[in-house]
Amino acid sequence: IFTKKKSILMSKLPKEHKFIDLSDYGRPMAKVIAKLFKNSAITPIHITIGFIISGLISIFYLIQGDYWLAALFLILKSILDAADGELARIKHTPSYTGRYFDSVADIILNALIFASIWYVTSSSIWICIFAFLGLQLQGTLYNYYYTILRNKFGGDTTSRVFEHEVPLALKGEKQKHVNFFFKLYKFCYGAFDKTIYTLDTNADQGKIAPNWFMTSVSVYGLGFQLLIIAIMLVSNLIDFIPNFFLIYSVLIFAFIGIRKSFI
Questions:
Q1: Mean pLDDT of the region 108-117
Q2: Distance (Å, rounded) from C-alpha 223 to C-alpha 55?
Q3: What CA–CA distance (Å, rounded) separates 107 from 50?
Q4: Which conformational region is residue 236 in: left (phi greater than 0), alpha (psi within -120 to 50 degrees), or beta?
Q5: Which among 129, 144, 126 is positioned nearest to 255, based on CA atoms?
Q6: Given this model, what pLDDT does residue 11 score?
Q7: pLDDT tens profile 188-209
Q8: How far apart (Å, rounded) are the C-alpha atoms in residues 207 and 140?
Q9: How confident is the model at residue 161 (pLDDT cuts 50, 70, 90)?
């Protein structure tokens, strides 16, 4: 279910179903980066490694107490997180390996961010753990609805609403790599996927989600989540980040309720 919004080779939505994605603010710069490396030896995996490095640098500055630089590298991470998919699109190199690697890298970095916040603040370790779990459930819900929407219009070759079986490797990648990263993906996201699916089992059978609804749910996209963290860091509100994301998770039930009642 947790298929990232920037999935490789994602086809564009029909004009009438395009919506303002509040979490996708890094897309314009991501396209510039992708075009820059279009005819180079740089691959989407290299860009993914780049966003991992950017995320780790952000965590380093967070621990050092330099919240402005920590925020800057968080935003850069979001931009690069979109650029790897853009590069795969223009190079016509879809990859299950890249998609799963990207998602696994995201969840590890998210966990390290909250671990770092716990380390430098007086926040309870349990509050930080539940805040991290809440953040992941938020992202899973958004990507669940978004993947369903994309799949209704053909979707991209690597996006699947339900991840039950290992997919066959695409051209240019090895099956053993797909197998390995699929298992990592299932280990990291399986519980979140099952939770959201249990809460809204029939979402893929309902009507097409309207634009206003998708824009609203996009506040749960990873890019927007990281933007919130960045803003709270530069506003010296780091102590409130765990509690904020705990409370923020309440919207999960609101969005599901709206979808079931009106969509």
A1: 98
A2: 12
A3: 16
A4: left
A5: 144
A6: 45
A7: 999 999 999 999 999 988 788 9
A8: 20
A9: confident
Distance CA 186, CA 191 (A): 8
- The residues near 50 (Cβ < 8 Å, ≥ 6 apart) are 80
Separation CA 185–CA 171 (nearest Å): 21
User: What is the pTM (predicted TM-score) of this model?
Assistant: 0.91
**Amino acid occupying residue 101:** F
CA 41 vs. chain centroid, Å, equals 26
Mean pLDDT, all residues of the chain: 91
Give the 3-state secondary structure of the chain: CCCCCCCCCCCCCCHHHCCCCCCCCCHHHHHHHHHHCCCCCCCHHHHHHHHHHHHHHHHHHHHHCCHHHHHHHHHHHHHHHHHHHHHHHHHCCCCHHHHHHHHHHHHHHHHHHHHHHHHHCCCCHHHHHHHHHHHHHHHHHHHHHHHHHHHHCCCCCCCCCCCCCCCCCCCCCCHHHHHHHHHHHHHHHHHHHHHHHHHCCCHHHCCCCCHHHHHHHHHHCHHHHHHHHHHHHHCCCHHHHHHHHHHHCCHHHHHHHHHHHHC
